[in-house]
Amino acid sequence: MRTPDAAFADIHDFPFASHYCEIRDAGSGTPLRIHYIDEGPRDAPVVLMMHGEPTWCYLYRHMIGPVAAAGFRVIAPDLVGFGKSDKPAAKSDYSYAAHVGWMRQWLVALDLTNITLACQDWGSLVGLRLAAAMPDRFSGVVLSNGGLPEGGPAPRPFAIWRAFSKWSPLFPIGRIIDKGTKRALSDAEIAAYDAPFPEARYKAGARIFPALVPFAGNPAVPDQRAAWQVFEAWDKPFLCAFSNGDPITRGGESRFIGRVPGTAGQPHRTLNGGHFIQEDDPDGFVAAILEVARQGGQE
Questions:
Q1: How many CB atoms lie within 10 A of CB 207?
Q2: Alpha carbon of 284 to those of 216, 220, 248, 269, 298: distances in Å?
Q3: Is 121 one of the annotated active-site residues of the chain?
Q4: Are the C-beta atoms of 83 and 56 separated by less than 8 Å?
Q5: Are residues 70 and 288 in contact, defined by beta-carbon separation less than 8 angstroms?
Q6: Rounded to an integer, what distance in angstroms lies between the CA atom of residue 47 and that of residue 43?
Q7: Integer distance in angstroms from the first to the last C-alpha of the chain?
Q8: Cβ atoms of residues 153 and 215 within 8 Å
């Protein structure tokens, strides 16, 4: 399915041109159109801003402009199933491996290199796997409120969220995002997060994503461990900027600092806000991104 453009007509705080790239599902050959924002000089180093569940690249609207103004090319895609990207209709169409494969095709099609990855939530689950699979294309990582789970039990707050996403008869995405921020979103902002999902049938990806996170028993765990082997030898800049108010990922930086060689000597920081830190502390996240992106530009 494809959300009609009319669904986005009333969004007035997202002044960025839309770009599209068509890929094909490796298994079925089905074409999938991926939407992305592309701002800043085309020949500049790339900052890849990857959103998570259940948001879209609108999440980065306060960050795209400042990073582009600092001289970087900002690319902000919508994951398949979200935003203006195409949306497979059945929950069974979605898997972790499929998402990594789809976004890898997209990244190669755009031939992006010298990338600083800025990621949060599922943006990290997909983005870190891309960096591990194609390390030569990446120059650094800035991670906030996310991770690279490799089995083990799900934290209780996440288990509750996973059950809610599976069983709740209502799944009000804009309100869910509002609950994950420390500041109150406006009605217009909530409506913008609801816009990609004009009917319940568009929400298959948003509903199934929590069940795909690779805690114990998930089939993606071996792939996660293989990715970790790459990061255990990763000596490029890797900066953690987790928030102080996210019950799900608080303290998650401890899984990376020290284990990833590139975290040594980096100015890791704590941002002020909830899970969706792009809404609560965009300036702090931008500062962390520029710290790493400028290191990459010196290499």
A1: 20
A2: 33, 32, 20, 9, 22
A3: yes
A4: yes
A5: no
A6: 12
A7: 42
A8: yes
Three-state helix/strand/coil letters over 114-159: CEEEEEEEHHHHHHHHHHHHCHHHEEEEEEEEECCCCCCCCCHHHH
Percent of the residues in the chain that have a pLDDT greater than 90, as a whole number:
90
**Is 43 labeled as catalytic in the residue annotation?**
no
Name the least confident of 34-43, 94-103, 151-160, 224-233: 151-160
Residue with tokens 């569940």: 53
Q: What is the pLDDT of residues 224-283, one digit of tens each?
A: 999 999 999 999 999 999 999 998 898 999 999 999 999 999 999 999 999 999 999 999
Main-chain dihedrals φ then ψ at residue 170, nearest 5 degrees: -115, 145
Query: Quick check: 234 and 138 in contact, CB under 8 A?
Result: no
Strands across the sheet containing 18-24: 18-24, 31-39, 73-77, 46-50, 115-121, 138-146, 238-240
Please check whether residue 239 is in contact with residue 143, taking contact to mean a CB–CB distance below 8 angstroms: yes
The structure tokens 């019950």 sit at 247
Task: Spot the catalytic one: 78, 223, 246, 281.
Answer: 246
Catalytic: which of 121, 223, 280, 281? 121
C-alpha 145/C-alpha 104 separation (Å) is 22
**Whether 223 is catalytic:** no
**Above 60 in pLDDT, residue 167?**
yes
Inter-axis angle of helices 282-297 and 61-69, nearest 10: 40
Taking the CA atoms of 181, 58, 195 and 13 in sequence, report the sign of the dihedral they define: positive
Rg, Å, the chain Cα set: 18
Burial letters 238-260, b for 16+ CB under 10 A, else e? bbbbbbebbebbbebbebbeeeb
